[in-house]
Amino acid sequence: xxxxxxxxxxxxxxxxxxxxxxxxxxxxxxxxxxxxxxxxxxxxxxxxxxxxxxxxxxxxxxxxxxxxxxxxxxxxxxxxxxxxxxxxxxxxxxxxxxxxxxxxxxxxxxxxxxxxxxxxxxxxxxxxxxxxxxxxxxxxxxxxxxxxxxxxxxxxxxxxxxxxxxxxxxxxxxxxxxxxxxxxxxxxxxxxxxxxxxxxxxxxxxxxxxxxxxxxxxxxxxxxxxxxxxxxxxxxxxxxxxxxxxxxxxxxxxxxxxxxxxxxxxxxxxxxxxxxxxxxxxxxxxxxxxxxxxxxxxxxxxxxxxxxxxxxxxxxxxxxxxxxxxxxxxxxxxxxxxxxxxxxxxxxxxxxxxx
Amino acid sequence: xxxxxxxxxxxxxxxxxxxxxxxxxxxxxxxxxxxxxxxxxxxxxxxxxxxxxxxxxxxxxxxxxxxxxxxxxxxxxxxxxxxxxxxxxxxxxxxxxxxxxxxxxxxxxxxxxxxxxxxxxxxxxxxxxxxxxxxxxxxxxxxxxxxxxxxxxxxxxxxxxxxxxxxxxxxxxxxxxxxxxxxxxxxxxxxxxxxxxxxxxxxxxxxxxxxxxxxxxxxxxxxxxxxxxxxxxxxxxxxxxxxxxxxxxxxxxxxxxxxxxxxxxxxxxxxxxxxxxxxxxxxxxxxxxxxxxxxxxxxxxxxxxxxxxxxxxxxxxxxxxxxxxxxxxxxxxxxxxxxxxxxxxxxxxxxxxxx
Amino acid sequence: xxxxxxxxxxxxxxxxxxxxxxxxxxxxxxxxxxxxxxxxxxxxxxxxxxxxxxxxxxxxxxxxxxxxxxxxxxxxxxxxxxxxxxxxxxxxxxxxxxxxxxxxxxxxxxxxxxxxxxxxxxxxxxxxxxxxxxxxxxxxxxxxxxxxxxxxxxxxxxxxxxxxxxxxxxxxxxxxxxxxxxxxxxxxxxxxxxxxxxxxxxxxxxxxxxxxxxxxxxxxxxxxxxxxxxxxxxxxxxxxxxxxxxxxxxxxxxxxxxxxxxxxxxxxxxxxxxxxxxxxxxxxxxxxxxxxxxxxxxxxxxxxxxxxxxxxxxxxxxxxxxxxxxxxxxxxxxxxxxxxxxxxxxxxxxxxxxxxxxxxxxxxxxxxxxxxxxxxxxxxxxxxxxxxxxxxxxxxxxxxxxxxxxxxxxxxxxxxxxxxxxxxxxxxxxxxxxxxxxxxxxxxxxxxxxxxxxxxxxxxxxxxxxxxxxxxxxxxxxxxxxxxxxxxxxxxxxxxxxxxxxxxxxxxxxxxxxxxxxxxxxxxxxxxxxxxxxxxxxxxxxxxxxxxxxxxxxxxxxxxxxxxxxxxxxxxxxxxxxxxxxxxxxxxxxxxxxxxxxxx
Amino acid sequence: xxxxxxxxxxxxxxxxxxxxxxxxxxxxxxxxxxxxxxxxxxxxxxxxxxxxxxxxxxxxxxxxxxxxxxxxxxxxxxxxxxxxxxxxxxxxxxxxxxxxxxxxxxxxxxxxxxxxxxxxxxxxxxxxxxxxxxxxxxxxxxxxxxxxxxxxxxxxxxxxxxxxxxxxxxxxxxxxxxxxxxxxxxxxxxxxxxxxxxxxxxxxxxxxxxxxxxxxxxxxxxxxxxxxxxxxxxxxxxxxxxxxxxxxxxxxxxxxxxxxxxxxxxxxxxxxxxxxxxxxxxxxxxxxxxxxxxxxxxxxxxxxxxxxxxxxxxxxxxxxxxxxxxxxxxxxxxxxxxxxxxxxxxxxxxxxxxxxxxxxxxxxxxxxxxxxxxxxxxxxxxxxxxxxxxxxxxxxxxxxxxxxxxxxxxxxxxxxxxxxxxxxxxxxxxxxxxxxxxxxxxxxxxxxxxxxxxxxxxxxxxxxxxxxxxxxxxxxxxxxxxxxxxxxxxxxxxxxxxxxxxxxxxxxxxxxxxxxxxxxxxxxxxxxxxxxxxxxxxxxxxxxxxxxxxxxxxxxxxxxxxxxxxxxxxxxxxxxxxxxxxxxxxxxxxxxxxxxxxxx
Lengths: 355, 355, 600, 600
Ligand SMILES: Cc1ncc(C[n+]2csc(CCOP(=O)(O)OP(=O)(O)O)c2C)c(N)n1
Ligand SMILES: Cc1ncc(C[n+]2csc(CCOP(=O)(O)OP(=O)(O)O)c2C)c(N)n1
Ligand code: SF4
Ligand code: SF4
Ligand SMILES: [Mg+2]
Ligand SMILES: [Mg+2]
Hints:
The complex is a heterotetramer, with two copies of chain A (355 residues) and two copies of chain C (600 residues). Chain A is built from 13 helices and 13 strands. Chain A has helices at 3-7, 43-57, 73-76, 95-105, 117-123, 125-133, 178-185, 198-209, 236-242, 290-302, 320-323, 336-339, 343-352; strands at residues 65-69, 86-89, 110-116, 138-144, 147-148, 154-155, 189-194, 214-220, 243-245, 247-253, 267-272, 275-281, 306-313. Chain A is globular and about 75 Å long. The N and C termini of chain A lie far apart (67 Å). Chain C is α/β, with parallel strands linked by helices and 600 residues long. Chain C has 20 helices and 21 strands. In chain C, strand 12, helix 13 (356-373) and strand 13 form a beta-alpha-beta unit. In chain C, helix 1 (21-34) runs parallel beside helix 4, helix 1 (21-34) packs across helix 5 (154-165) and helix 17 (506-518) crosses helix 20. Chain C is globular, with a radius of gyration of 27 Å. Chains in contact: A-B, A-C, A-D, B-C, B-D, C-D. The interface between A and D is large, with 59 and 75 residues. Bound molecules: thiamine diphosphate (2 copies), iron/sulfur cluster (2 copies) and magnesium ion (2 copies). One magnesium ion binds at residues 72, 116-118, 145, 147-149, 156 of chain A.
């Protein structure tokens, strides 16, 4: 990463003529998408910005990314980053299945899935859980605002019990914790963050992009129109006041040198697919311990705290493409000669059916 | 429970002429259903027998029970018990939703849901999770054999990683643990048992029937045709050899006296809706502790043990009907006068729409 | 006020959504209602929450037509991003009212139009202190400007503001200030339009109500006795249940404050339909409400309800399909998915309201049909009907008592001489008898399933029993054929040309037909109100050589049903298809008919 | 062996499922194949795993007819629970072969039938040592008995056993013992039947293959280049993918032992269709396979694939609907759910095989159609075709290379003179060009969505753009109309009566037509092979005054499409509907036609 890029971190370059570029000679502009049509101040746009920064700074080739989503304000966002990547805004709740199919067709492309809490915790819950069970290689971001934004503010399944509507009506239902669900379903990278905390979020996205397997980011992302009022536990203010980071991370790609300027006792290095995660502990939590990961989430929930950071990581599990033992060439790019058995093969099939 | 009934526990009365009866003056025969069309030796039939025994011994009025299911061998079983109860064998994976609708229509009837692992852990996962989140008052039994019985033996999502097909092919996928799922989804009674262990299972069913809220029983139930071979972790033998009961329980209905003939230190009494659960600890596990409940399940999974017993209980949560604040008369039985607003009401509606 | 045309004008208001224009537009529309004018509104809004173009069409019609006219006399061009296109919409001689706080971009002006500026942004900036209020207030300025231009008295506008915001003077005051600013500015500008003038008609709307079709459905369902309501949010159907939530407590709370209803927001449409089925089976009057994508997801459940014979009501509010399509545009393109919903052989009952009173009535009666026929019953709404404010006759109190259909209670079971058989066609009408779970009788229980079953509800794979069952279900549908709301026939002249319309196509078809008749091409008109098609529809078709079927879909889905039901006359049935997602305008219908006639 | 009828007999074998009868029946059937006879089989099995009644129908036809005859000459009555009903099935003069280890229940015998006993249970008990083997072996006894009765040589049976169980003498031996026991017993009984005798026809089946239609589909898909296969188990479609799993590794394993395919058992059909769409979009040849309930669940996804123009193949193996219906019985009742699948306006391509070679071919070509039209393509199978062993011509190697349709690769993009527009109808055929994700070109990427989009794949709510898009999709369908496999017309005589059949209705219709022709009522016959309907179908209809459409559904779903496509002739189209779940017998078709003719 160049010095200039570092200065412009997360911002459009001031001088487009001499725009900073990354290792692929791309400017940050090259990572942008169409103009957002979301509401001003929507948390989702902040997450979009983090994705752009992460991909730009990692010098990811946009042509190697595919963007997938369901339906919702959140699910619109793939249109707002990386116009040079193919994107597919599918049906409500099916981001996970869409990405799984895409991942099978071409396992050399990295899917970024963007979903909402309605999309993943309600209508898509089953498909989402099974995507994780299969350990699809994906960076799957849930832009969690506790409501159905696009259909105008109904509570979603991640709305906390007791949180209130704009008119003050409390939500009687228990919240579905997508972090816990991810862990028990078999996700191999589970993090939680907050759209308003780019310093924590951007490196988490970078790490997720370098994880081979199902990386789930449950990102609290306030809906400024329908769920940002007094009494809501998913308002900007409430999240700010009640979040509890267990750690922050740096992701250092393999082409960079690791500088360890942290107190070693508080730092863990986790080797990834093409880089290293350096994790700075803020609380005593070992994210490689599955049982502890479940426990800290549950404890935090009982204390009405939003735990953020890298909650769980297990980089060792084979991903879907490995389990399916896929040939190196993407299935999508195999030629007739590699796909259609020969006339002789058919003859021997016919022969075998003559008895 | 009469002395005769006690002797015939779990068995058809030997002398049908002088058949034993329960407090409702019903014989065990009155709790039976149509003849089973399942395979001889199928675990599901054993569970059916336990349901019959539990309901008979509890003197439950069959007319107060409704039976619901999805599709599968397991889902056929509601036809095989309690012919005097209404039953509904719905669509694949939708037992939970069907029961929720039924529960709303008439909250004075107790639903018994019977589902399979395919039904609940795959196609029905989302609806199942949300039924628990709503804490529907139901006894929901998953007859878990690790395979799709009715479609001839494909692995289900609860098949353990590494378990083998009849031809010896190992299952590469992680298993979905329905117990953990139940706990994180908000079920308020979570037990695991084994179709071959009626002594443990029958009291668990009794307790579940007396729980007001979502009581989930994940019952291992070997499929003798497709999943009972060497190499399968859901075979009768494998389950027998690897199960680890954490406790056994007695359910004592309120009309009976509690006799405490166990060492008090090892026994807990849990007051239920209309009775008491007396829990005999075999391991140190407090089923009222949610975090511990998740932990013991996960620990057992890591050790490849089948934990059985009452894993988690939280009798204090309001059930769906309470949250919905339903009127005492079942909605299904309200009359026109209670449902249709008056002509005056319509007039004032019309008037209010004139500006 | 020199305009010679009285009470006939088409206004389009172009703004950005989320900018407060919804309130402004409603205030304007309600003012016209208050004046006693015949008027209608069409809200063309985008599928997002804030910042995209949105249009509000107001039509005042001296002749009593309520559909989209398609010709714009006045464009309130308050959205800079669509300005150029909006200007193009205006008919020659029309008016463009724009915010001239900043100058008009070059190249827009044209001689055929009057461009009238009102510096809304500046006026608001100068007069409203609280900056947060300014964005939303800006749109109130055009209310005042339009009021001045067309002669809407500010007293009426003030009344409307009071009706709308009630006892909140803090809200009313800044609104009124801006309206007055707009009014005053226009008055001072000296601009006189000659498009039309509006004159109040005292008592013109006396007794008429103003609401949206989805609200009418919601109220109908409450009066129909809906007790279990399941839904998953989806545009344009959400407001059906949201309005129920807002209203039902008033009528259905018992002495102890407990609810005589349950409304559950489900996790998906699979759950919505299945819960409704569970509830319907267990004796409740159950319903759900959805739109296209949800309807697709419900297909399996719909088949279950049909085959297991479980009553439930499904309100489908049509939007532009297929797939996500245009969620905030209107179509009538779910006909096949409703009428033949689910795999296998199914035919469903569909009630088709065409205005708010019929939406209320059909939504109410749907529960009777569902119980009477023990089957899922659809109410076919669409975005146009469902989400636009319209002025109609008031709702009518149902005259018939609720019909719970052939239910056997304890006493009935006691009185039976033969054993109760759930699926026996005792009466030859295809409709069997049912009992409700919990009935305190030893013979009441039966087993329900979506698989093959005998008349006594046992599982069977016997092929004759199976065929008999399918035949009985078809018989039931044929019984319903003669029991559905009959079509309404408006036979004007001796002509061998007919038109068929249904639902929200009624109003534009009615106007098109009047135009054609006036032009010397008289046509008779049949309003179709339900599936199965009543035999009267067949008679109408038989009486005409050519029958135009006006549908808001691409493939002539209703025509397909008509052709299949009346094969003898299939060739007379000519679909007139409008499916761009806007409510059809009469000229569009006329144009297609003219083209068809020219071609043949 | 005095029977005068040669090589023409209908046998029904009644057993319990899970009792080993499947093997016995297959051995018997394969022996007939080996003898060179024209024969067919129909397996009527229950929807459970063990212990319910099951029937296996074998037809040997000297005249080359393969459908269910409907008349039983010989009943192998090996299931006591259905004995009485089974006996009733046998035509006068026919034979009942039963297990007389225990006596026949009273009241069953009748003079018109020959009752022949073979003490299978006792024979097996006395001769097979291992008790576990006995249940299954019992059914081998009737194989021997039938062989003796009809003159099937034991050498042939032994050969078949060897073919079937290969190198497992431990399996073969007890089977052969039991077969011989049955044979010997019959020989010793001295019973001589006069129903028919079977004479081997050397080379009679030379070059013919024997398999199930689902296997043919599976192989077709492998030859069609399927790379991503998603499925959720459901009867009667499971064996499509299960056979692929068994076969594909042979042809699609690379040098390193890695897979050139992915087959994923999904969590539900929502996932199956959506994964197939994800894969098709990302460039794979993707498919899924399902039956009724799964098809209903896929409706939303089908609409997405249609509207976003993503190729994928859906094999639907029809079973008796609606709802769960009879999962192990056959019907052609998913036509509407396929052809107009999903909400909104959709029309889909459906390929309709009628035998195994066409199942192979269409399943293979489906991928070309999907890629060529960038749309979901259905292959309409059913349980009858899919799960019954039948003897046909061999599969033919596709002659055309794979057609991936209008895909632009790097070089093509470089060569473009205008900017790439994903949804532009450059060629006027309604089919746009696409690029595949991962294409290494800066202009390749575009954004796919199920909502409204412009030709350059941007989101839009513009109503004219939207209508143009719907029109283009319809144009694409019309382009396909002339590119579908044409119907096969069997015009026999100068007659103004026609018959239309499709899929598994072809064979019984062919026979019915021959019977009617023989009876002096000649008819022409058209085999319909695809939707959209080719114009040739319209021509055929136009040429006949009456056209009977034989369909295995209640509501005449294909007739509805025909009537809508050819309204001028709608009234000539007369549905002949058989929907009890059994494969239709010719006499059923004839009876319905006779009744129709009598009534008119
Ligand atoms: C099958 C289906 N049902 C319902 C909808 C309507 N719908 C659109 S977005 C949405 C909710 C989105 O909520 P969430 O996923 O949390 O996204 P957000 O808008 O909050 O970012 C719903 C219910 C739909 N598009 N499809
Ligand atoms: C929508 C749908 N898809 C598929 C099926 C086919 N099917 C019937 S039963 C079954 C699996 C049942 O497995 P499980 O729930 O574990 O029950 P088991 O038979 O093992 O007791 C499946 C996939 C179906 N009936 N409906
Ligand atoms: S409605 Fe909420 S979630 Fe949607 S764009 Fe606006 S702020 Fe964001
Ligand atoms: S197949 Fe398996 S699950 Fe089904 S009835 Fe037989 S043993 Fe039980
Ligand atoms: Mg949300
Ligand atoms: Mg199972």
